[in-house]
Amino acid sequence: MIFHEDDINFERLDWKQFEELCYDLLVKFQFHSMAWRQGGSDNGRDIEAKRYITDSIVSPYQEKWFVECKRHSNGLALDQVVEKINWTRVEKADHFLLIVSSYVTTQTREWLEKARQTEFFTIHIIEGKFLKQQLLLFPDIIIKYFADDHVRLVRSLLMQWVSHDILPTPKALYDLHKNLDFGQLDYQELGFMWHAYVHSEEAIQQYCSDQGLEPIVWDGIVPFDFLIPYLKLAQNWEYPVMKEFETAKFGMINGLGQQWMEPQGDDFSFSNIHYQLLDKERVQVCLIKENKILEVRIGVGFRQQ
Q1: In terms of Cα–Cα distance, which of 216, 230, 227 is closest to 183?
Q2: What pLDDT does residue 221 have?
Q3: What's the DSSP call for residue 75?
Q4: Per-residue model confidence as pLDDT tens digits over 163-189
Q5: What is the number of H-type helices and E-type strands within the chain?
Q6: Which residues does 154 contact at the CB level (< 8 Å), separation at least 6?
Q7: How far apart are the first and last CA of the chain?
Q8: Whether residue 267 has pLDDT greater than 90
C-alpha cells in the first residue's frame, strides 16, 4: 500500500487505540519488555519499556523508558505533563518519552526545555507531524489503524492468492472497482489486481449481467484500462520486463496478449499481461509466484526497433 500523511488521521482513534498504536510503533524500534499500563492510575506512564543499547564501545546495556501517550486535538497543556515528569524522577527511569498526536503548547515546550537541563533523565517529545513521518515507515501499522475496508480487502485477497491460488470473486472485483482508491495500492497490489480482473473478465461480465449492474467498461483494446494510469505510475522494471536469458524458464512471454501458467507441483506459476496502447506505448505486467513468494514486474515503454 502507498500512504501519505493525509491518510493518517488521529481523530479516528480513541485514547486506547492511540496508546496501542504507540505500543506497536515502539516495538518496531526494538523496545522490549513492554508493559502497557491500562486502566486506573498509571504512575506517570502509559507504557513502560526497556531498550538495549549496543552501539557503544562498552558492553551492551539496558535503559528504562517511561512513555506517555496523549491523543489531543489541540495543544497539550503543561498540567498534562508535570506529574508525569515527577513520576519519572521518583521511579528513576532513564528516559521520558512524550508522544502527542497534535503538539505541545509554547508554555509546555519551554517548561520541558528547562526540565531537560536539570533532570538526570533524558526527555523526548514526538509530536503529531513527526509521528506521522515515522508511521509512514511501517505501512502495516497504517493499515491496522487507518486504512479503509477496501484497502484491507485488497491485502487480504492478495495473500489469499499467494498462499492458496484463490482469485477474488467477481462480486469482490466489481465492488472494488466502484469503491477502492487504486492510487493507494503499491506495484505488487496493482499487478495482482490487473491479473485478477483480466483473468476473471468473462466471469465479471456474467456477474454484472446476472445482477443487472452497470458493466465495467473499457476502450475495447485494453481490458480494464482504468488501471493503466496507476500501473504506469507504479512502474518498477525496465521494459520489456523479461530478458532473453529468462525465456528458457518462463517461455516467450514478452509477446502481446495474455499468458499464464497455473501452479505446478513445485508451486511455480506466472502471469503475463502485455498490451499496446493507442499511442503505441506498451504496458506489461508479469507476476512470478514461486514457493509462495511473489515477484511483480511492471514495465512501460515502446517496441524496440
Answers
A1: 230
A2: 75
A3: E
A4: 888 999 999 999 999 999 998 899 999
A5: 11, 11
A6: 1, 176, 180, 185, 189, 192, 193
A7: 36
A8: no
Looking from the CA of 219 toward its CB, the CA atoms found within 13 Å total 10
d(CA 218, CA 208): 14
Look up cell 512513555; give the residue: 67
Closest CA to 230 of 163, 154, 172: 154
Give pLDDT, residue 208: 94
C-alpha–C-alpha distance, residues 176 and 46, integer Å = 39
- Residue 258: CB atoms within 10 A of its CB come to 16
What does the alpha-carbon distance between residue 74 and residue 96 come to, in Å, rounded to a whole number? 21
Length of the chain: 305
Q: What is the spatial distance between Cα 76 and Cα 133, in angstroms, rounded to a whole number?
A: 20
Higher per-residue confidence, 58 vs 232 = 232
DSSP 272: E
In whole angstroms, what separates CA 93 from the centre of its chain? Answer: 33
Closest CA to 80 of 64, 98, 94: 98
192 touches 296 (CB < 8 A):
yes
Given its phi and psi angles, is residue 27 left (phi above 0), alpha (psi -120 to 50 degrees) or beta? alpha
Q: What is the pLDDT of residue 215?
A: 87
Angle at 120 between CA 117 and CA 123, to 5 degrees: 65
Whether 144 contacts 17, CB under 8 Å: no
Please state the rounded mean pLDDT for residues 83-90: 92
pLDDT of residue 35: 87
Say whether 229 sits in a helix, a strand or coil.
helix
C-alpha cell recorded at residue 133: 513521518
Residue 126 φ then ψ, to 5°: -120, 115
Indicate the pLDDT class of residue 217, thresholds 50, 70 and 90: confident
